[in-house]
Each structure stands twice: as C-alpha cells, then as structure tokens.
Amino acid sequence: MVSRKCDVAHRFLFMGGDNLQLTPETVKFGLTNTCGEHKMEQEWHERREKQDRRDLEDRRAGKDRRFNQERRDANDRRQETISVENERRSSEQRTGRDRRTGKSRRSGVDKRGGLDRRLLLKKSRKTSANVLLGAVVMVGLALSLVYYEREIASGGLTGTIASVQKQKLKILGGGKTSLNDLLKNGPVLLDFWATWCGPCLKEMVHLQRFHEKYEGYGLTILTINQDDPKSLSKVRSTVKSKKFTFKVALDPNGKVAKRLNAQLMPTTILVDMDGVIRWMHQGYLPGDEIEIEERIRALLGIQELAPVAS
Asked: Cis ω on the peptide bond leading into residue 252 (within 30° of 0)?
C-alpha cells in the first residue's frame, strides 16, 4: 500500500513540470528519499504504539520488565519486611529489650529520670493499682468517719483523775505543776491537743476566750500537748503566734493521755475540785464550743442573767 506522500512524489515526478528535467537518476533518487523517510517515520510510530500498549498491559498485570519480575511481588515483599520490623519493635517494647546491647532496658536504674524501672508497672497494671488504691482510701475514710462520729461523744461522770492527780507536768516556758496544785484554786478544764491537729487549733481559739472570761471564777484551763520532743520549737511558735495565754503542759510520751483514755484529739475533760471527771468530750466540730461553755457555767454555778424589762 503506497502512502499519500509517495503518491504525491509519483505524480510530481512522472507528470512533470515546466522547469523539471526528468532523468532515470532523478526519478530513482526522488522515490528513494521521499518514500524511505516516510517509511522510517511510520515504522517508528508503529514501534512506539506497540511499546505503549505493552507498557499498559504490564502496568495492568503488575509486571516490571526492567528487573524481569512482577511489581506486586516486590511490593508484597516490602510490606512483609515492614510487618516483620514492626513486630520486632513491638516485641522489644513489650519485653524492654535493647537490641543494641542485648540487655533489658527496664533492669537497673533509668539514667534519664533516675528511676528504678524494676518498680514500674505496665499501664494496665498501673490503672488497676490506682483503682485499688482509690478503693482502699475510700474505705479508710468511711471507717475513720464512723469511728470519728462514734468517738465524738459526751459523757457524764466517768471516774476520777486519781491516777494522774499527783503526777508532775512540765509547763511550756519553764516550771512544773500537778493537777493537785491546780485543783486547789478551782475546777480544771483539760484539753489534749497537737500542732498537727487542725480541729484542736480551732477549739483552742474558743478555749482562750473561756480562759479570759472565766479565770476570775476560779477556772483553770490546762492544755496538754502530745507532740514528740523534736517538735518543741513548733509548739512554742504555735502558742506564740495564736497568742494563747492559758497553761500548756507537755506530754511527749502520751502517758497522761493514756491514763485518762484520751484516744482522740482533741479530748476535753472537765474536772471538779474533788478530782471527779464531770464531763468528757472527744473530737471537735463547729458548734461544740457552745456545749463546752454551758458545761463550764454549770460547773461554776453561774446562772444566766434575766433580760431587763423595758
């Protein structure tokens, strides 16, 4: 099949022209050059189209002709390698194994934070431990509240102070005294407290008021501190900062508190001049100071003044 360019060349050569001189060499040269170039161009386009079709088929089939293997196999192997690497890293994280040294990362001391990783727990175990700890704390608070409510009670006549009546007590600021000496002047209000006891300090504010109000009636307020000897300076600073002027005795070993069964702080005991315990109260809640003052007034025999009629 002769192409369009070859037809044009044949017509031009054989039909001739006014200025064209045809010779056998001219005809042969013209046909050879014109048709040969076109044939080469046509073959190149055919090869190009064939290559494009083959590349399209290879892409659809997943083949890679450069390496004489399928692309999908290479991708699968790459994915398999990545999966193996991820699994290895996950295993190292679970076991805490350091691949470079072959030793466990969790053993020994962590140099970054100075922590002992042998004491660390996994996340799930940490959560369980926190839940368990929270439950234990809640149970402890509930039990302490029940105990506190049970112990915050007032009692009537519960005995005497004969076991500690003659015992010498060291007074903060110097000197010693005994309950026998104090009872000669009138009733005594004993209060066991400590610097770390918040309710004790709140109650002592009212005791200072009672001391100023009823000292002239013969009432002596003696607070007995239960801190250890190392906290003596803290006791002094607390008394000074609060401006307490009543007597403060020291009972670091808790001997007096044990003999009078002062199990909870603060414990308030009201003793008459005969050494008889007339009233005992353990713990403090806002409003308890009202009952304490009523008990003091009843023991001192102070009657309420009748309102003045206008």
From this structure: no
